[in-house]
Amino acid sequence: MEPDGLKSEISLGMPVQYLRGVGPARAKVFAQLGVETVGDLLEYYPRDWVFMPQAVKIGRLMPNETAAIIGQVESTDYHSYRRQPMFEATISDETGIFRVVWFHGGYLRDQLRPGQVIMVSGKVALYKRRLQMTNPKFVVLDEEHSRSPEYFSGGVYPATARLGSRQIKQIIRPVLDRLDVLIEEFYDKSFLKKSNLISRKDALAWIHLPGDEKKLAQAKRRLKYDELFLMQLGLGLRRYRMKHFSEARPCEISETIDSRIRKRFPFLLTEDQNECISQIVADMGRPEPMNRLLQGDVGSGKTVVALYAALLSVANKQQAAIMAPTEILAGQHFLSIERYLKGSKVRRVLITGGLTGKKRAELLAKIAGGEIDIVVGTVALLQGDIEFRNLGLVIIDEQHKFGVEQKARLRKQTTPHCLVMTATPIPRTLAMTAFGDLDVSIIRHSPPGRGDVITRWVDKRDRSKAYEFIRERLKAKKQAYFVYPRITAVEQDSDVRAATDEWKHLSGDVFSEFKIGLLHGRMASAKKQEVMSDFRKGRLDVLVSTVVIEVGVDVPNATVMVIEGADCFGLAQLHQLRGRIGRAEAKSYCLLFAETDNDVARSRLEMMTRSNDGFEIAEHDLKLRGPGEMFSTRQHGLPDLKIANILDDFDLLAMARRDALEMVRTDPMLTKDEHKNIRRALLAKFGDSLGLADVA
Ligand code: ADP
Ligand code: MG
Is the separation of the CB atoms in 447 and 272 below 8 Å? Predict the structure, then answer.
């Protein structure tokens, strides 16, 4: 076996099992930590670092300084001093001798013996005209001096019961001695200098064994940059590939087509809507698929923009599919489309789960035969047996309710243009990462004529007052939502109100003079549709429901929303719910009921009463929850971030994005010789999903 602890020639791709100190059993433990190869091990970064000060000679010690010295233990003694047990050691080097004491140091009797070489660090004091250290930190160095003090400082690794931090450190150490052969630099010297980055090799050495805080900071900066850069480069290339390697049918626009579409809307489009439409029209005019995210707060008018795109597709003799996450939403979309398209020749259908047998077969045949122009439906649409004759555009509403995978499956059928709509405002950080391969259009301002929404967090003592207030609004022919976190009460949690029980209570008791409907996810789909339709038509005054009404439901006459157990909901969800009101000119009221001592929940509810701005709320939410929960890179088909954090390292992220996009622009296939190391690293991270492997 080689003295440096490697059993064979090392490479980044070598399984860790072949490192000294690792066998099949330990390799399994490493695998659980996500470490398969030497390259993974190098990226298994410490979670913390300890620093030992530079050791000085005993003869140079000064009182009151904090110092470290290395010396040999001359003698030890354990005794009582003023009734306190005390362990005492005398330590020497070639320049002097010096006393160290530990109060209550009985445990040291087994650890420190004369003859050992130890390193101690702590504050130097003058005691009876002699220098001494009291209760210093110490490490025993190897008897033969073969271990340097640095061996004992450095990284603290996230460890498990079966693999300690110390062991990981020992295993990684010999790998660090080979960084020269293992690590290839990504960037040229002038770039590193300009960007204030150290070399990749130093960065990896120092992240595991930093000499001091400054080196550690430099190492972190470089490795974070690399991680973010590779992610951004991957996203950039994915987008480039999407644009240049898949074909879509370009849609032509003309003034006639444009004005014919606009005539369908009984209002003038807002500036934001027009801006988004022109971006979409430009995208769809190209022979490569559009891949665009349309963002806008609830009620901001996204549906209109989407319908414009659908009609443009139809005008170009191509079909459009509109997909919503739930049947209710799909129905809602279909209804508003029907409203806008009344009297139009555009052939449109709603596909529901209830549609079966012969009827379904007939419909599918029509779609496959090109006799239908616009198909609206749920995920059911994605389930494979629907064939389009010439699908030109796919519109996906509320995409995060779908998995990315489903989206990908749909894409494979053909390469239609794709427009994803979301009412969840995506903070800048996420727009640049999780959704970094989409182009983004934003509707920032809602159409005019929207009343304010006033939000209050109501104290439980004011509940009956709140009910009286609601009664007044109901008498004035307004409608109200009552939203609950649960369908039925859970016993352990009986102070959280539930929809079915409260529906009985409200309709039988509190608001017995009004008509009150109940809506929740366990009801049959036909029944749900019926209740929604009754509420929409004003046959119901109050709708008691669970979060099934969260998205898209549009009843402008509903101007009151009560949210019970509001602390059970996330911030984004509360904002979505509230978006159901404030849809007409009248003032709306959102009343939150919650009793909680949880600081995060309180902060959420206070934010709700303070702001109506979805973007502001989303940023706040991201801060409260941290990126981890909301943002899983893996879920978006990206490698995990191991050291960078998109919130804390936003500046570095922006810089990495800029540099990566520049590289995509100048060398989209990374064929230039100076990019070969980057290309290799990228392949290792993304596999060949970027299509880089095709090119030698
Ligand atoms: P979103 O899909 O973003 O929630 P919608 O497109 O459903 O929003 O629009 C919400 C409401 O605003 C609808 O009732 C719609 O008729 C209306 N609306 C949309 N655009 C305009 C506009 N430019 N002017 C006036 N009303 C509009
Ligand atoms: Mg909508």
Answer: no
